[in-house]
Amino acid sequence: MRAADLGSDIKEVLYTEEQVHQRVVELAAQIDADYQDREVVLVGVLNGAVMTLADLCRSMNSHMTMDWMAVSSYGVGTTSSGVVRILKDLSGSIEGKDVLIVEDIIDTGLTLSYLLQNLSSRDPNSLEVMAMFRKPPALTSSVDVKYVGFDIPNEFVVGYGLDYAGHYRNLTDVATLAPHVYS
Ligand code: XMP
Ligand code: MG
């Protein structure tokens, strides 16, 4: 679904489907160059990173496997609860592997610092992060993100996997929502 199909629900389109796709292709090339002949485990953070990981891995030429984690940091709304809980753990071991966490968006950085701490304790050979979107540093300055799609303003965004109360994930553009959606 495109932003135009949503009419008055959309306040502003920040990135079009085409711009997002172009950036994913660039990041995939960068990742390929960095990993060369090493096999990388892409760890997607459900549900938001589904689109990013699916597109990223298809633009990569490196050998890869994928695994998924689900954590809760936000409730149904737009504010972080500050508490991170594992809802679904990885299916396989990452010991000795080259792991790349794939995140949809980094806001406070709480989710990511929890994930980094948790996954690094499993002794991967390397552990890096790719985030499709990143908001201005709150706590984010303390977490090292090697690959960033776009730095965006401190506004709630939807689309390309990002949701508001479970909706708008299938929007292919990335946009902010009109105030009436929240009321
Ligand atoms: P923290 O604050 O821990 O949050 O970095 C990261 C997680 O919060 C969600 N999040 C958003 N989801 N639009 C969304 O749809 C947003 O603007 C947004 N900001 C944060 C998201 O699940 C992310 O993994
Ligand atoms: Mg998420």
Q: Could you explain how this protein is built, in words?
A:
The chain has 183 residues and is of the alpha/beta class. The chain has a single domain, classed as Rossmann fold. It contains 4 helices and 9 strands, in the order E-H-E-H-E-E-E-H-E-E-E-E-H. Strand 5 (98-106), helix 3 (110-120) and strand 6 form a beta-alpha-beta unit. Helix 1 (17-35) crosses helix 2. It binds xanthosine-5'-monophosphate and magnesium ion.
Largest sheet: 6 strands, mixed
Element order: H for helix, E for strand: EHEHEEEHEEEEH
The proportion of residues in beta strands is 25-35%
Measured as a percent range, the helix fraction is 10-25%
Distance between the termini: 23 Å
Hetero ligands: xanthosine-5'-monophosphate, magnesium ion
**Measured on Cα atoms, how large is the radius of gyration?**
16 Å
Anisotropy-based shape:
globular
- The computed structural class is alpha/beta
Counted by DSSP, the helix tally is: 4
User: What name is given to the CATH topology?
Assistant: Rossmann fold
Number of strands: 9
- Judging by the overall fold, what is the CATH architecture? 3-Layer(aba) Sandwich
Number of domains: 1
Q: Report strand order across the widest sheet.
A: 4-3-2-5-6-7
Task: Record keyword descriptors for this entry.
HGPRT, binds xanthosine-5'-monophosphate, PRTase_dom, 4 helices, 183 residues, PRTase-like, Rossmann fold, alpha/beta, binds magnesium ion
Task: Write a compact overview of the structure shown.
The chain has 183 residues and is of the alpha/beta class.
